[in-house]
Amino acid sequence: MVSLDDVSRTSEPVRGRRRWTTRPRRAVGVLTALVAFAAGGGLGAAVTADRGGSAPAAAATGEARSLTDALRGSRGAARAGHVPDSLAPGTAAPTTGAGADGVPPTPTTAPPAGDAADPDLTEADLASGLLAAGVPESASGDLVVVPGSDPGPGVGDVLTVRVEVEEGLAVDPEAFAAFVMTTLNDPRGWGGDGSLSFARTDRPADLRVVLASPTLVDRMCAPLQTRGQVSCGRGGHATLNFRRWVEAVEDYGTDRDSYRRYLVNHEVGHLLGHPHATCPGSGRRAPVMQQQSYGVGACTPNPWPFPGRDG
Q1: Which of 79, 110, 172, 221 has the fewest beta carbons closer than 10 A?
Q2: Assigned domain for 32 exists
Q3: pLDDT tens for residues 138-196?
Q4: How far apart are CA 233 and CA 83, in angstroms?
Q5: CA angle (287, 157, 257) in 5-degree steps
Q6: Residue 72 placed within a domain
Q7: Helix axes 173-184, 256-271, angle to 10 degrees
Q8: Residue 288, domain member (yes or no)
Q9: What does each C-alpha distance from 148 to 14, 108, 161, 182, 199 come to in angstroms?
Q10: Percent of the chain scored above 90 by pLDDT?
Q11: Domain residues for 180?
């Protein structure tokens, strides 16, 4: 059975709606910071597979080095899971193309789907749960559990997954939850070798997949620096940045559907204990644990752990 970290009670949606608190937890914070420092060369360095010195901070006015330079200057690949795709202070964000981790809590009602979806959204956008293309920097700060359950294929070790969405985002929660689960249980996904499968629940679970605004992502991923741009998989939750869910990244072009599947698989991969990987060679598929949000380098984009299996 895959061993997963326990989830802190302060991060659980509870009866009614509960806001995230920013009260420091000194011991946990220090331990997490030490793990992050050992894994990624310090909180001020982008976690990447290249070797070199740590990236310096840039002035708050935005005089930052390019993301490529920052990645080239970071310290080394992580050797354990639960590592976020953090940004060094002052580094540029991933670029986007023009088209492109006791008593069970009572699940609250999922946020309403709202009015008609943005007519500019594609069918793939709608299937991922998007209802509008705008990206708010923050929403309510309240996480809401998507109600419902699904046993999944029941193959191998079965891990339970709870899907949550920040209230106030323009998202159809049921569509988002379905997208997450079909991605995880795809034959090309983490269970593609028959070792495990995923079952959705709205009760306490082995892991959580959360879609949140940039501001809430930064809080959930702290002390690691997501800087409103990237996501993380740590502490039992894979927290997906709504900015990346909407905009994807340049290397995936207009194929935002594939990038979203990469995002789910990559961050859940950290919860399963997988560290970052590097491009194996020019023209080859990028490993799903490569930090593809920063670019695929000489590789080609790939959202799947087992891409050779039939989808």
Answers
A1: 79
A2: no
A3: 999 999 999 999 999 999 999 999 999 999 999 999 999 999 999 999 999 999 999 99
A4: 6
A5: 40
A6: no
A7: 70
A8: yes
A9: 16, 11, 11, 15, 11
A10: 59
A11: 111-294
